[in-house]
Design brief:
The protein folds into 2 domains: about 130 residues, Rossmann fold, CATH 3.40.50; about 140 residues, Rossmann fold, CATH 3.40.50.720. It has 10 helices and 12 strands. The two termini are about 25 Å apart. A 6-stranded mixed beta sheet has the order 2-1-3-5-6-4. It is of the alpha/beta class. Helix content is about 35%, strand content about 20%. Bound molecules: NADP nicotinamide-adenine-dinucleotide phosphate. NADP nicotinamide-adenine-dinucleotide phosphate binds next to α5 and α9.
Length: about 280
């Protein structure tokens, strides 16, 4: 049995995505959501071992809390200090993080990568996974712009190669940096359904050179104001669904411990999500 745990988690698209992939691969494995409240991980891990759970995904609020509970960690999980995919291997819990790899695959899929010069908005958990993964591609400068500057600084200090630079989040700074970039990635909550706040000013998009792209990690709504504004300026756009799909494909590869036909599965999942 496979699961996704979190709180809340019943709204998660992961069961639909994984069930579509498992069905396509002809595998008789179930993938179900399981509510696990904050602080409930030790009990869940014991329960999971006793109930033949061979792997699970984790969402809010568990990604960072899983780190000390794992027997082994993959490189990406160590780097971002967060786990979104857990496998049981010979009785040991192995934690991985597929968010950064999923974002990179989504950018490739949407034709937004490679890009020289990247402006990342936000410095939370998602921004960390994305920034640290893209930094390894060495695409020229990557600026991490965050409302709370100290969090951007902490994130950038995790990058051993000095590709990441912290920056402020005000419209003037964003415009200045966008004039030197080809890609903006929104990793903040701004514009998400349920978030009371929105970008106050989209003028930074005007500074992007033509042919640039904008990715928003948000997929509720499917097209945020940021993506509407970017599209109106003729920029390439991508919402958060492709990243969600590709991180799930990489997670399933860990669960099954084998390589999978990624593009074929991505098409299957995109169709399932549209149905
Ligand atoms: P998080 O750790 O809570 O980080 C939130 C970020 O948003 C922080 O940088 C925060 O800045 C910033 N922020 C929040 N409100 C703001 C405001 N009013 N003005 C300016 N900045 C603001 O959250 P997360 O886990 O990184 O998730 C961020 C987004 O990514 C969410 O919308 C989530 O759904 C999405 N996501 C998508 C995927 C996918 O597969 N597509 C995967 C993971 C996450 P401060 O540091 O200043 O508070």
């Amino acid at each position: 049995m496979l699961q996704v745990i979190g709180d809340p988690v019943l709204h998660s698209k992961s069961p639909l995505i994984h069930t579509a992939m498992l069905h396509h691969l002809g595998l008789d494995l179930s993938y179900t959501p399981q509510v696990v409240p904050k602080g409930g991980l030790p009990d869940y891990l014991a329960w999971a071992k006793a109930h033949s759970v061979t792997g699970f995904n984790a969402t809010m609020p568990h990604k960072e809390d899983l780190i000390p509970l794992m027997d082994t960690l993959g490189e990406d999980a160590v780097r971002c200090g967060a786990v979104n995919t857990v496998c049981l291997r010979d009785g040991a819990w192995v934690g991985h993080n597929t968010d950064g790899e999923g974002c990179l695959a989504a950018l490739h899929h949407q034709g937004l990568w490679p890009a020289r010069g990247v402006v990342i908005l936000g410095a939370g958990g998602a921004a960390k996974a994305v920034a640290l993964r893209l930094a390894r591609e060495n695409p020229g400068p990557i600026w991490v712009c965050n409302r709370t500057r100290s969090k951007a600084q902490q994130l950038c200090q995790l990058d051993p190669d000095g590709v990441l630079t912290p920056a402020d989040f005000d419209p003037g700074t964003l415009s200045h940096l966008c004039s030197q970039a080809q890609l903006v990635i929104n990793c903040t909550n701004l514009g998400m359904d349920g978030c009371p706040h929105q970008f106050e000013d989209f003028s930074f998009l005007d500074a992007l050179p033509s042919g640039s792209g904008v990715m928003d990690l948000i997929y509720h709504p499917a097209k945020t104001q940021l993506l509407h504004q970017a599209q109106a300026r003729g920029l390439g756009v991508c919402n958060g669904l492709p990243m969600l799909v590709y991180q799930a494909i990489f997670a399933l590869e860990y669960f099954l411990d084998r390589q999978l036909p990624g593009e074929e599965l991505a098409q299957v999942v995109f169709q399932a999500l549209q149905a």
